[in-house]
Amino acid sequence: MSISWGNGLSLPWAFDAIQVAWVVTAAYFVVSALKTNRIKRRERIQGRLLDTLLLFGGYFFLFSQAPILGPGNLHFIAPRPALEIAGVALTYLGLPLTIWSRAHLGRYWSGVVALKQDHRLIQSGPYRVVRHPLYSGIILAAIGMGLCVTTWSSLLGIALLTTCFDRRAHKEDALLASEFGAEFAAYRQHTGRLMPGVN
Predict the structure, then answer these.
(1) How many whole angstroms separate alpha carbon 116 and alpha carbon 198?
(2) d(Cα 170, Cα 43) in Å, to the nearest integer?
(3) Whole-angstrom distance, CA of residue 31 vs CA of residue 193
(4) Which phi and psi (to 5°) does residue 48 adopt?
(5) In the predicted model, is pLDDT for residue 180 greater than 50?
(6) Looking at residue 45, what is its pLDDT?
(7) What is the pLDDT of residues 39-68, one digit of tens each?
(8) What structural domains does the chain harbor?
(9) What span, in angstroms and rounded, lies between the C-alpha atoms of 79 and 112?
(10) DSSP secondary structure letter of residue 192
(11) Helix, strand, or coil here: 42?
(12) Are 4 and 19 in contact (CB under 8 A)?
């Protein structure tokens, strides 16, 4: 199961553990996407295009060891057991948070910035503290991956994913504000965007 990253680590099982967590999370999203409401309103395709490039570029640089990356496959710091364990820990904090957040969204989840039919403002579970905990969880897990593999390309992947999800969080806030007005304004006052206390 491990690839050359795992062979270069002090604790090769760490990469395997991270890989398993990402695969399980991806499988959950694929299955749960089958039960969502129809889209009522979505952002224009121009806005989605940049997000899509950032998203797929981020995952590519985070996970790929393609030869075309050249120096990107080099380590910015030598792999160390403490970093690898911290990477596993962040991954296993971030991805369960992502799954928990997805479960609370239920039929209102969308892979794009959109409102669903009969949409309502979710304020339960992790949404009591943070407005976009699903994105927060993915960013945490991406940082965990970067700490584990310590390649320059993984840093670029983290930066691209963080940029993508920060953009999407801002756009979703605007969309929810236009739909829910005073209810969203009140909700926004006591929640952070991607981190508690940070709006």
Answers:
(1) 27
(2) 12
(3) 27
(4) -70, -30
(5) yes
(6) 82
(7) 888 888 877 899 999 999 999 999 887 666
(8) 17-189 (1.20.120.1630)
(9) 36
(10) B
(11) strand
(12) no
Tokens at residue 193, please? 């965007």
pLDDT of 67 reads 65
Measured CA to CA, the distance from residue 165 to residue 98 in angstroms comes to 13
Tokens of 49: 């295009």
pLDDT at 182: 96
Listed in sequence order, the residues at least 6 apart from 116 whose beta carbon sits closer than 8 Å to its beta carbon are 36, 37, 38, 39, 40, 107, 108, 110
Query: What is the Cα–Cα distance from 60 to 119, expressed in whole angstroms?
Result: 32
Enter the pTM of the model: 0.91
Residue 33, token pair as written in the block: 């996407």
The CB-side HSE value for 135 (13 A sphere, CA atoms) comes to: 24
Distance of alpha carbon 159 from the chain centroid: 12
